[in-house]
Design a protein that fits this description.
Layout: E1 3-5, H1 19-34, E2 43-44, H2 51-54, H3 60-67, H4 73-79, H5 85-108, E3 110-113, H6 134-144, E4 151-155, H7 162-167, E5 174-181, E6 194-198, H8 204-222, E7 226-230, H9 248-265, E8 269-272, H10 281-299
Parallel strand pairs: 1-2, 1-3, 3-8, 4-5, 4-7, 5-6, 7-8
Length: 301
């Protein structure tokens, strides 16, 4: 059974320009149910990840200040959200949703978090609206619990997964692969195990051809027994921040490549949603729902 972490409480930041990305977390589950792709039985509600779990990937000092809401003003500006207990609890719930999703993926081949993909949070910092790195924490958890030996993080958000790269720099068990807009945020990038920088304006065919080649190389180099997929839809031409020119079909073909690669390798995959900032919310939600639809088709649910 496909299992999906659903977060019942959503905290809307005060910045009006970022309201759409928050609303999508409510609309994605609703659309999945409306289209009959899943039922209520497919959803589970996570709880709050513990301090000990957060510290598997983040520095204890950073975790202490984050949980106490005492980060300095410079770090709060770097994160981009007004810091609050409710926002921190939401991030801890996202982390637990991804970790629980790992257990479900080990049982059922694939699982989803309706939020997450907070890949800009590094070991001792938050950044770019990311306080905690849900997939990095979950990857460290799998290794620590001996549930996986070799993990591959596939990050196809338009922005480099700099926080994930920072956390796993020099790590031989977690292989980070990021394919992103070379001239987009973050402007000072970390070094992933494998980075593919894309030119502005790249379209479907060039993107898919490059991804097919690079994805095969990432699987070969990582030899994973578990995969995390950061499935941001800010690669769309309609995205206000993306600078790439992919269509909705191109985005879906991207998902097909990832899921087929996991299916053929018989490797479980946990999926977090990542970014999406198109002008019209329907473009964001439709592209995200296509990711679920593609997984259902590939894995035969």
């Amino acid at each position: 059974m496909l299992k999906i972490a659903h977060h019942p409480v959503y905290i809307h930041p005060l910045r009006e320009g970022h309201r759409f990305p928050m609303v999508k977390y409510e609309l994605i589950p609703a659309q999945l149910l409306h289209e009959g792709l899943v039922s209520e039985a497919n959803f589970f509600e996570p709880t709050l990840a513990s301090r000990a779990v957060l510290e598997l990937a983040h520095a204890p000092g950073y975790v202490d200040h984050l949980l106490a809401c005492t980060l300095d003003a410079k770090m709060v500006r770097r994160i981009g959200f007004p810091l609050s207990k409710a926002l921190v609890e939401r991030e801890c719930m996202i982390v637990d949703g991804t970790i629980q999703g790992c257990h479900y993926a080990l049982q059922h081949a694939v699982s989803f978090n309706t939020a997450g993909g907070t890949h800009h949070a590094g070991r001792n910092f938050g950044e770019g609206f990311c306080l905690l790195n849900d997939q990095a924490i979950a990857a460290a958890y799998l290794i620590e619990q001996k549930l996986a030996e070799r993990v591959l993080v596939i990050d196809l958000d338009v922005h480099q997964g700099n926080g994930t790269a920072h956390i796993f720099a020099g790590n031989q068990q977690v292989f980070t692969f990021s394919m992103h807009g070379e001239k987009n945020f973050p402007f000072v990038k970390e070094r992933s195990h494998m980075d593919v920088g894309l030119p502005d304006g790249i379209e479907d065919e060039a993107y898919i051809s490059l991804l097919q080649e690079q994805l095969a190389q990432a699987f070969y180099r990582a030899a994973p027994d578990f995969v995390f997929y950061q499935a941001g839809v800010d690669i769309l031409a309609t995205d206000k921040l993306g600078k790439l020119k992919l269509t909705e079909d191109g985005c879906k073909r991207r998902d097909e490549l990832v899921f087929n690669s996991c299916f053929k390798a018989n490797v479980p995959v946990q999926v977090s949603m990542g970014g999406g900032y198109s002008t019209h919310i329907k473009d964001i939600v439709n592209a995200h729902v296509n990711t679920y639809r593609t997984a259902i088709d590939v894995f035969g649910f």
